[in-house]
């Protein structure tokens, strides 16, 4: 081969490597390594697969070098006479070589045959393809959480394939906004929420229905959100129809709702336009769950809120006329409010709440009539004064009974005597039943255990201290698991719902395990200390002593001290017309200004 021919060949190799690297967006070194691997594979086909043949291409000059390599090993470790040499054999070639060294024999250049050339091409293409996939994965895996711009390449069975430039993404049917219609060549914006490494290449998953897509759009349209002055604490969407976002300002001088709405609704309208007219409720976020839930249920007016923090459930009472507003079209309003707040919301009308109160009132009256041997009038009077159990009557201060209108000290004393006698009889009956069930006496000595609980445990075949120690909190309090429709369904535990919290059940079981020697006193003491509740205190405006904020006080604050510059009544008036649009069979008014 002439010097000119060799020089041209070298130049061509470098040009190919540069062109492929630039086209695929990968490192030139990877292309050259792929070429070296292809040359090695072709050389083994010519000289024999048993040889250790290595190739090298100089990245600066393009010069190619080919060697057959043999490794020097001790004589007793010689296993492959083709790829290995003993020390004596190697020193005949290189007197200075040592164990572990390599003898390299340079091989002459050769012409690739048709089969060898095709094989080399496949090796290079596969290596470049793998490098391109790695580059795509590395490029996009760090962009999760960003809004990506692309062009619709094709639509297949509702799935949108998006050309992102150096890669392709997919908006699956479930990640698209319903009723949106994209055509080939349309520009599209979507939220990158997942990148997975697959055998056929990285899969880039995009979404226009993801709640964080709306959050990212607000960050682009509202400078205060982008800068972190305003935080979007939570977002719930019914894609293409309605959405709610909870906003909070770290600067008391900035109204988070007004900042997100913008002048004449310009900012929120830009987001609505990108989402195809999806209506957005912007809700002032609050650290107090009751307040936030009341805000989230706008435009409905809430009468009462009762929280169950252990179950993360809230019971909300609204006026009968407000019930359709609170529910929303096909349950949309309450569903979005539940997703936004993270609480399971149980809606109830004032009529239903009154009926439940009357039912509970009658049950308490019947209990007092039986336990105190009293007439209906007296039992109802006690129930109306707020007494709920016989224990309260038996051990309340006598003045609390005698101060009731129509009562005196003699009546109060007689009622307490009858109540205590009833409790003693009930205790004896429960204790006898406990013995019949076989519940051991030491179980009854556990802190927090009552006779009624002992009977209930015995009925559930928990009779010894070891039985109690072997339980888990869910066994006692109950648990939730997905039902047939996918919604969580409560499974009852040993005790009635609400009788013992999960933390109390955990501590109860740990004390049993301490009794049977499964954990030592030091470990139990640490668990008890950790379980001690933190008392949240608030200080009055006049500097009086701080007092504990109760659940009822938080509920009242939620109704009386709503955050934001706009009152709940004003917001409800603004939203009622919008709600009427929602329930209109012909659809919502597209020109309605978002809130």
TrEMBL record:
InterPro entries: DNA_repair_Rad51/TF_NusA_a-hlx, KH_dom-like_a/b, KH_NusA_2nd, KH_sf_prok-type, NA-bd_OB-fold, NusA_N_sf, S1_domain, TF_NusA. SUPFAM superfamilies: Nucleic acid-binding proteins, Prokaryotic type KH domain (KH-domain type II), Rad51 N-terminal domain-like, Transcription factor NusA, N-terminal domain. Residues 531-550, 573-595 are annotated as: Disordered. Residues 412-443 form a coiled coil. Keywords: Coiled coil, Cytoplasm, RNA-binding, Transcription, Transcription antitermination, Transcription regulation, Transcription termination. Signal peptide: none annotated. It is found in: Cytoplasm. HAMAP family: NusA_B. PANTHER family: TRANSCRIPTION TERMINATION FACTOR NUSA (PTHR22648), TRANSCRIPTION TERMINATION_ANTITERMINATION PROTEIN NUSA (PTHR22648:SF0). Belongs to the NusA family. This is Transcription termination/antitermination protein NusA.
């Amino acid at each position: 081969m002439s010097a000119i021919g060799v020089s041209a060949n070298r130049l061509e190799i470098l040009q190919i490597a540069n062109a492929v690297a630039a086209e695929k967006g990968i490192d030139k070194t990877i292309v050259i390594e792929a070429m070296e691997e292809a040359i090695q594979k072709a050389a083994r086909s010519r000289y024999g697969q048993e040889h250790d043949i290595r190739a090298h291409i100089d990245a600066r000059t393009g010069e190619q070098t080919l060697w057959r390599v043999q490794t020097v090993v001790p004589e007793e470790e010689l296993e492959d006479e083709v790829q290995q040499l003993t020390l004596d054999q190697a020193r005949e070639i290189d007197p200075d070589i040592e164990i572990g060294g390599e003898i390299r024999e340079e091989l002459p250049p050769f012409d690739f045959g048709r089969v060898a050339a095709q094989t080399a091409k496949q090796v290079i293409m596969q290596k470049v393809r793998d490098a391109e996939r790695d580059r795509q994965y590395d490029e996009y895996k760090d962009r999760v959480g960003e809004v990506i711009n692309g062009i619709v390449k094709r639509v297949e069975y509702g799935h949108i394939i998006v050309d992102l430039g150096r890669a392709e993404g997919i908006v699956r049917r479930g990640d698209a906004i319903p009723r949106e219609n994209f055509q080939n060549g349309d520009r599209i914006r979507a939220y990158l929420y997942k990148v997975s490494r697959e055998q056929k290449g990285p899969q880039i998953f995009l979404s226009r229905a993801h709640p964080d897509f709306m959050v990212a759009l607000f960050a682009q349209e509202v400078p205060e959100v982008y800068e972190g002055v305003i935080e979007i604490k939570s977002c719930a969407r019914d894609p293409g129809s309605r959405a709610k976002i909870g906003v909070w300002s770290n600067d008391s001088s900035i109204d988070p709702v007004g900042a997100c709405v913008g002048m004449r609704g310009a900012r929120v309208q830009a987001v609505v336009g990108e989402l195809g007219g999806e209506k957005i409720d912007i809700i002032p976020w609050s650290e107090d769950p009751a307040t936030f839930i009341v805000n989230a249920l706008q435009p409905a007016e809430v009468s009462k809120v009762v929280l169950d923090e252990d179950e993360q459930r809230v019971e909300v009472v609204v006026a009968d006329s407000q019930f359709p507003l609170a529910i929303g079209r096909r349950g949309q309003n309450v569903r979005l409010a539940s997703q936004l707040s993270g609480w399971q919301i149980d809606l109830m009308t004032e009529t239903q709440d009154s009926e439940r109160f009357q039912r509970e009132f009658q049950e308490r009256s019947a209990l007092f009539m039986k336990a105190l041997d009293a007439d209906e009038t007296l039992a109802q009077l006690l129930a109306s004064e707020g007494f709920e159990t016989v224990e309260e009557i038996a051990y309340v201060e006598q003045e609390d009974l005698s101060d009731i209108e129509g009562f005196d000290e003699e009546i109060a004393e007689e009622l307490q005597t009858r109540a205590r006698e009833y409790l003693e009889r009930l205790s004896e009956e429960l204790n006898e039943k406990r013995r019949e069930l076989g519940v051991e006496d030491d179980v009854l000595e556990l802190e927090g255990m009552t006779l009624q609980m002992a009977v209930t445990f015995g009925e559930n075949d928990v009779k010894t201290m070891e039985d109690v120690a072997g339980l888990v909190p869910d066994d006692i309090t109950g648990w939730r698991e997905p039902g047939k429709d996918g919604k969580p369904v409560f499974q009852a535990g040993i005790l009635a719902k609400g009788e013992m919290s999960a933390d109390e059940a955990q501590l109860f079981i740990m004390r049993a395990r301490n009794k049977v020697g499964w954990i030592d006193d030091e470990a139990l003491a640490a668990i008890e200390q950790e379980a001690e509740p933190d008392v949240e205190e608030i200080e009055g405006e006049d500097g009086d002593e701080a007092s504990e904020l109760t659940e009822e006080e938080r509920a009242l604050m939620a109704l009386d001290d709503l955050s934001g510059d706009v009152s709940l009544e004003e917001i409800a008036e603004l939203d009622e017309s919008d709600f009427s649009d929602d329930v209109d069979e012909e659809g919502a008014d597209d020109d309605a200004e978002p809130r």
